[in-house]
Design a protein that fits this description.
Length: 386
């Protein structure tokens, strides 16, 4: 684990985890309250209702604006989503938008590259993630009713807990509310953790997002995570007929009632995986490809293969070239430098099908040559500075 990641783990606000842990411990109280069929029915109903509210509300509407709705129904969605006790829609959307900007990089709020536990739930309690970045959600922050829910983020779950108690007594509170809340917690968190670790990859997205059919079942379609990262503004996340997406089906039903509208779906060229990738994805993929080749080892092999006068001349040329190192190395055809064809072969093994593969390989080849050139030029730069 990197020191940066370890530093983030040290930044956990442990007191803020007390309510979260208490909800889990409260589930054990079913030993004393008993388990009734009514309470179990409430648990099942609240699980699926709130999983829908997370997918349709927190995620597809508030984070990605994948469809439109009225201010009234927007408030209803926000209230239902916040009954999950996963903070406000303002906070949730701000963190999620940040995640997509920096997915699986050092800046990502919950990448599994920082550790499974941290990505699953630890990040929530980190001090730097405690507040929402309102600059990322200005479209939401201008709605006073959403800012009110942001201020009183615990009101919806507390109101639901009280309702469960009045409907079914202590079993209703413990089994109906607490059990379903914990289940919703961890199924949702699995998208941040497992959906970046286990599953298939149809699209090259520059990150570790995966399609996971099992998660898709329990999250009502959110498990088609690689699809989502490929086209984030789509209200539909199951891109194939067999990729079940109940959240999308229900939103289609709501659109027939005119409660939601302007449902955005992926264009045909995206469904056929024929879209050109953006520069950010190309650069990320190129960095991953170049990292497969050890530039220090390549530079050492070149150094060993050249005679001293040849090596010194090469080093002088590279120092003078500075920003043109890749061009110089391309023209010299040095031994032990991987060819572009070798990078292309590695790229085909690494990445999902994409029309931008040549652009990725060209960029990776340039990055690798620059890295090798810097390693070769280091000795002469040190001598000139001494």
């Amino acid at each position: 684990m990197s020191s940066d990641a370890a530093g983030e783990h040290d930044d956990i606000i442990y007191p803020s985890a007390i309510p979260f842990v208490s909800v889990h411990l409260g589930c054990i109280a079913a030993i004393w309250t008993g388990i009734t069929w009514q309470a179990l029915a409430i648990c099942v109903m609240l699980y699926w209702l709130r999983i829908f509210a997370i997918g349709a509300g927190y995620h597809r509407y508030f984070s990605h604006r994948a469809y439109s709705t009225s201010r009234v129904f927007q408030f209803i969605l926000a209230w239902l989503a916040q009954t999950t006790a996963q903070k406000s829609v303002i906070w949730w959307a701000s963190k999620h938008r940040h995640h997509h900007l920096h997915s699986d990089t050092e800046q990502d709020v919950h990448s599994p590259r920082k550790g499974f536990i941290y990505s699953h739930l630890g990040w929530i309690f980190a001090r730097k993630h405690d507040t929402a970045d309102l600059t990322r959600v200005l479209d939401l922050a201008r709605c006073p009713e959403l800012m009110w829910l942001h201020k009183y983020e615990l009101l919806p779950p507390l109101a639901l807990a009280v309702l469960c108690f009045f409907v079914a007594g202590w079993p209703g509170l413990v089994v109906g509310f607490l059990w379903s809340t914990v289940l919703v917690y961890h199924v949702t968190f699995c998208i941040n953790s497992l959906a970046h670790m286990r599953g298939s990859t149809r699209y090259l997205t520059g990150d570790d997002s995966r399609n996971n059919w099992l998660l898709a079942i329990f999250t009502m379609g959110e498990g088609w995570h690689n699809n989502h990262h490929a086209y984030q503004s789509s209200v539909r996340q199951g891109f194939r007929w067999w990729e079940i997406d109940p959240t999308y089906y229900l939103l289609r039903a709501l659109s027939s009632l005119s409660l939601v509208w302007d449902l955005k779906t992926p264009p045909e060229h995206v469904l056929r995986n024929e879209q050109r990738l953006g520069s950010r994805v190309i650069n990320r993929a190129a960095e991953q490809l170049a990292a497969r080749f050890n530039s220090e080892r390549i530079a050492l092999a070149i150094t060993s293969a050249l005679r001293a006068p040849e090596l010194f001349a090469l080093q002088e040329t590279l120092v003078r070239a500075h920003h043109r190192m890749s061009e110089v190395l391309k023209s010299l055809h040095l031994p032990h430098v991987p060819s572009r064809d070798e990078l292309l072969h590695e790229a085909k093994a690494m990445f999902a099908k994409t029309r931008s593969l040549d652009e990725i390989v060209d960029r990776a080849f340039e990055l690798l040559l620059v890295s090798v050139g810097k390693c070769l030029a280091v000795p002469i730069e040190r001598n000139s500075n001494s």
